[in-house]
Amino acid sequence: MATSAIPYTLLLLLCLASFKTSIATHVCDPQRYQQLGLNMRNFPFCDITKPYSERVKSLVDSMVLSEKAAQLGNNADGVPRLGLPSYNWWSEALHGVSYVGSGSHFDSAVPGATSFPLPITTAAAFNELLWLNIGQAISTEARAMNNLNHAGLTFWSPNINVVRDPRWGRILETPGEDPYTVGRYAVNFVRGLQDVEGTNATSGDLNTRPLKVSACCKHYAAYDLDNWSSFGNLAVDRFHFSANVTEQDMVETFQKPFEMCVKDGDVSSVMCSYNNVNGIPACADTRLLKGTIRDEWNLHGYIVADCDSVETMVDDQKWLNDEPENAVAQAMRAGLDLDCMTYYKNFLVNTVAKGLIKERDMDNALMNNYMVLMRLGYFDGSANYEKLGNADICSKAHTDLALDAAKQGIVLLKNRKTHDFFLPLDPQQFKNKQIAVVGPHANATTVMIGNYAGVPCRYVSPLQGLATYANVQYQTGCADVMCKNDSLVWPALRAARDADATVIFVGIDLTVEHEGLDREDIELPGYQNQFIRQVANAATVKGPVVVVIFSGGPVNVAALETNPDIDAIIWAGYPGEEGGQAIADVIFGVYNPAGRLPVTWYTGDYVWKLPMTSMQLRPDVNLGYPGRTYKFYNGPIIYPFGHGLSYTDFQYELVSSATMSVEKQLGLVQHCLTLNYIKGAPAPPPCNAANVDDLECLDGDMSIVIKVKNVGKMDGDNVVMLYSQAPQGILGAPIKQLIGFQRVFVKAGGIATVTFSLNSCKSLSIVTDTAYVALPAGKHTIIVGTEAPEDTVISIPFNVDIRK
Ligand SMILES: *[C@@H]1O[C@H](CO)[C@@H](O)[C@H](O)[C@H]1NC(C)=O
Ligand SMILES: *[C@@H]1O[C@H](CO)[C@@H](O)[C@H](O)[C@H]1NC(C)=O
Ligand SMILES: *[C@@H]1O[C@H](CO)[C@@H](O)[C@H](O)[C@H]1NC(C)=O
Ligand SMILES: *[C@@H]1O[C@H](CO)[C@@H](O)[C@H](O)[C@H]1NC(C)=O
Ligand SMILES: *[C@@H]1O[C@H](CO)[C@@H](O)[C@H](O)[C@H]1NC(C)=O
């Protein structure tokens, strides 16, 4: 019916266009070879009856040395005489297919892709299924773009470095400060990107299991400083910085998400970082790469360098006064399979000629790389995905998911429920009323999609979102986030004074925090605080005042938290292309917020207490440095990790369980570990702890069942956060550590039951200062919920008995 209305010529054009773009090409296509004037049968790597391992070996064996070198940068040249085309390894998909990385692009044929919230916002949702679903949506769009020759199949995402310091410029790209949360985000997002729907991605030969697209966990390891200058020092940047880290912090914090990404997510790539780790460039460290990622964690995939990491060793780090060939040899021997940029490509031939590496080292690297392309169907095609095209990009389902993700990630920081005004606003009451929408982010568009973005399908700005509920009066108040002066404040004050409600959009953006730029402090820039105070004061006579903050890293909002003119504060992170609607839906109570902060919001003076270059997580008594993250810092804060309010109230209740203890038996020759205790601590059990490697560990040997009661008046989600606390008195043990979280929907007046099935070895262990993962004996505490007031925290004793 619809087609009959389309003119014949247009129809023909449409047919031609869809014919041209719907054929996904793959290397081992006999017709392709015919067109090249070659016979595919002469190339055994195209023999689909042979196993992948034989085929990739055959492909590599067919190349001469110079041809091999030409394949080992992100722009792999291909080998025309073998019918092997060029391939660009570098595509990105941090929160949607991106134009960063030369492997993907947008133009009139593919004008945009769904831009989901930045990971710091998505992380705040604390919803593993959401993370998986976003990965699946992105990989569907990525496959469609690949079919349309607009993207590769290998995506160097996600960024899973743990947020150690609030000043870091790349916090927006990450899932926050808790290694367990970051690891679970990595596992789910990677499985969403990689796993082929309908196949079992955890059984069979994992070396050959098919991939939807290939993901990459980066940047390994101990990378979380970009370019920082303060304390009157010269700038320290990631190309020169040596992260001095203890093995304890490596195991417990810096490597943990990578271990989970490889072991539990079965990611097909890991990227090493620019920085040195204890004096050795991360990409040249054999123990970190080959020893740990490949041998210990059993990576099925390839290890890639951050772009020009190898060159950085020579030009910036002057590592061992290397010539380029030395650096190339060290990286290759360490297990680096692929370089980004041209150092490998330019110097590998000479490196072999000088006798610094075996040519076979290159063969191994190439085989690791081609194995991933084989699994992606790059050689043979992917029947599952070849029909995907434009209709699968920016689909309604995907933009709806982007909106849902933004709503789930929004965190309600403050809401003065005891005051005259508080959230949510009543849509009925505001139908024909006036809302002042002011501040530098009031009409935010590009700000909402942050960095590593693509071209979004569209934007729904806060102004547009709020206009769906009320009449809006828009004034920026500040020219930009720097808010250098108060020259624009008067129109904003007037708008606020006359309005029935005022929403102030402030915060920071990529001019303040980005890759290559750390912050010196965590304050709102320029006149922002003054602007907010003035507007709030002018507005408060008539109606509610809401402040909405855009930022990746935390900002010091102490003055807003205590300001009686400000009724509510919302943290929107960077909420993606649909963000403005999500914010409006939350303000008007169409969506009940449930997001939780994935990082601690410290008071502003925190940053003056320790330099960003200090990597240590635990407090340093000698230097007077406080600890870092909720696990080790117990000084003043504005909001704790896990903070986030709701429009309703929840109560937790433990469903009594028969076994609130476990018993573990050590073998005949195995020793108890001796822990250090704080002076005056209660007498420890005779066997302090056991090395977890010595124990029989079972998933599900520990089960915690919680009833979540919605005792308020509005339906809503609740994030149940479960922490463990080691027995009292153990020196250096975390204050507490997150061991599980679940997001559940509970109707007003209703009850939901949440079951945590845990492994006591994983959930109750701590990392000793000798870097063992140890299960302490004695009385542990399980804590349900974050600090008051949002959760009625409950504590549950859990006993661990270790028998020798
Ligand atoms: C995949 O296979 C493993 C091992 O056979 C099995 O334990 C698991 O339940 C399967 N997963 C799915 C999703 O079928
Ligand atoms: C780091 O920042 C300083 C200014 O503080 C600048 O001069 C320098 O070029 C930056 N370095 C890098 C690598 O971005
Ligand atoms: C790291 O350790 C090296 C070697 O001990 C030292 O020279 C360097 O100053 C340290 N860097 C930092 C940031 O502490
Ligand atoms: C909001 O921003 C969009 C995109 O930059 C622009 O087209 C629009 O005119 C702006 N709205 C107002 C009211 O300034
Ligand atoms: C105020 O800031 C704006 C935008 O940054 C600038 O254009 C203007 O010159 C400034 N005015 C004064 C008086 O400094």
Automatic annotation (TrEMBL):
Q: What molecular function does GO assign, one term?
A: xylan 1,4-beta-xylosidase activity
In what residue span(s) does the Fibronectin type III-like domain sit? 718-788
> What InterPro entries does the database record attribute to this sequence?
BXL (IPR044993), Fn3-like (IPR026891), GH (IPR017853), Glyco_hydro_3_C (IPR002772), Glyco_hydro_3_C_sf (IPR036881), Glyco_hydro_3_N (IPR001764), Glyco_hydro_3_N_sf (IPR036962), Ig-like_fold (IPR013783)
Task: State the UniProt keywords alphabetically.
Answer: Glycosidase, Hydrolase, Signal
Per the record, the domain of life is: Eukaryota
Would the keyword Signal be found if you checked this record's keyword annotation? yes
UniProt-listed Pfam families: Fn3-like, Glyco_hydro_3, Glyco_hydro_3_C
Annotated signal sequence is 1-24
Biological process, per Gene Ontology: arabinan catabolic process; xylan catabolic process
The record ties this protein, via SUPFAM superfamilies, to:
(Trans)glycosidases, Beta-D-glucan exohydrolase, C-terminal domain
Database matches in PANTHER family = BETA-D-XYLOSIDASE 5-RELATED (PTHR42721:SF11), SUGAR HYDROLASE-RELATED (PTHR42721)
Q: What is this protein called?
A: Fibronectin type III-like domain-containing protein
Organism for this UniProt entry: Dioscorea zingiberensis
